[in-house]
What we know:
Layout: E1 3-9, E2 21-25, E3 30-34, E4 42-47, E5 50-58, H1 62-73, E6 88-96, E7 99-103, E8 112-116, E9 120-124, H2 127-134, H3 140-148, H4 153-156, E10 166-168, E11 172-176, E12 181-185, H5 195-213, E13 220-223, H6 228-242, E14 248-253, H7 261-272, E15 277-282, H8 310-322, E16 327-329, H9 334-338, H10 344-350, H11 354-367, H12 372-383, H13 387-397, H14 422-434, H15 444-463
Parallel strand pairs: 13-14, 13-16, 14-15
Antiparallel strand pairs: 1-3, 1-9, 2-3, 4-5, 5-6, 6-7, 7-11, 8-9, 8-10, 11-12
Amino acid sequence: MKFFCGFYMKRKQSVPIPKESETILTGKHKLYVCGDWKEHEVQVFDFPFGKFVFLGECLATKHEIEKILLREGSKESPHYHSLAHLPGNFNLIVLAADEMFLYSDMSALRPIYYSNQENYVIFASTSLPIQQLIEAPLESDRVIMSFICAGMTEFTHQISLFQGINRVPPITALHLSPCQHRLVRYWQPKLVMTLEEATIPFRQGIMQSIHRRLHNVERVSAEVSGGLDSTTLALVVADKLQERHRNLIGLTLKSPSPHEAEDVNLAVEACQSRNNIDHLLLEPHEYPLPYESMDEVPLTDEPIVFLTTYGWIYSLLERARLFGSELHISGDGGDNVLVASYTYLTDLCRFKKLGSFLKHTYGWSRVKYESPWKWIWRAYKLRTTPYTQWIQDQVALLYKEPNRDDRFGWSGSPVLTSWLTKDIKRSVGERLVEQRPLLYSDTPGMQNFFTSLFLTGQSENLSNA
């Protein structure tokens, strides 16, 4: 298993060293990495004013990182949050004087867990080593929450499955000092931008992410489903590789359903539009169908109830490895970035974009064959419903029939299943009311977007475990 773990020491005490680990930070406070970490995934910057460790995939150059460090280190009150804004998927650990900052990533791909003990705070990228050290018992209420409230990441991304072990939420840092430990939000959503205003930075971010990942890689594969997200990424990658006279390995899964034949045809057409894509079509008998090969799913500390296609995800990655691929590009999660939930209509109403609000509600009502008045009413009703009241409504809905319409909400709604007893419903309801949620925005549309994005990040982390 690949993970990191460490100790922030409050008092002197001997602590165990993980087996087959590499020591990254020595001295009073400790940091270790275990498993197969690539060289570029562990970067350490040591300056007189502090030590800075990047764990994961930081796409910034060494020069860019050092420039920020020298700028902030020269200040009387340095501000290192901007380091966590750098492109990539990584955790950042800052040790300055006798204080430590543990930065979770911005998309829930790389969690950090921690437990506050009498003489130290132990932290790790998985809760399992912490659980083994402190012998924390499994907390059944948390397990139930992870299943029923999977889409409510404002609750689930604060905790682990074990008693006394918590999680540093996305876009948040854990600040450790001799006197206290506290969570600090290091990024806040900016003002809403128009589609035209957002197009340029969005395109720049996508292109930068792709180009920097390809920098030191020779063999690249990509999933080409025929859909908008994966196919677009594959074509962009192919064009970039063409500049270096390299080929792209394109992988497409042929669905047994005739209704998805059009996607396969589009994938074939897209690959034929580039002369440097080696396209491979996998027939249905060459990969597991949903719910097959579920025994191959690795055991983790983060259950995901809808990861039913793990078998074909794994077989796709294995096929890429057979071709010597060093980097696999996938469009998974693209829907959450490119397609907003219906709750965005509520934000249009709040920001007084009346023309767009009426146009979009009418359009969705036509698509769903429903009355436009129903869509207008539901969007406006959520607009006037504060989050605390919405949570109370969700608790009440735990006792309703499972065919309710939950397209509008501050986040995902609790999932109703046949095995939910009254005691379980009561326990979940009490936790939803008592636990303080993480609100990433004061508007339902933005809040819904972030909770959905972070759930996708969590599932992508597990599907590639």
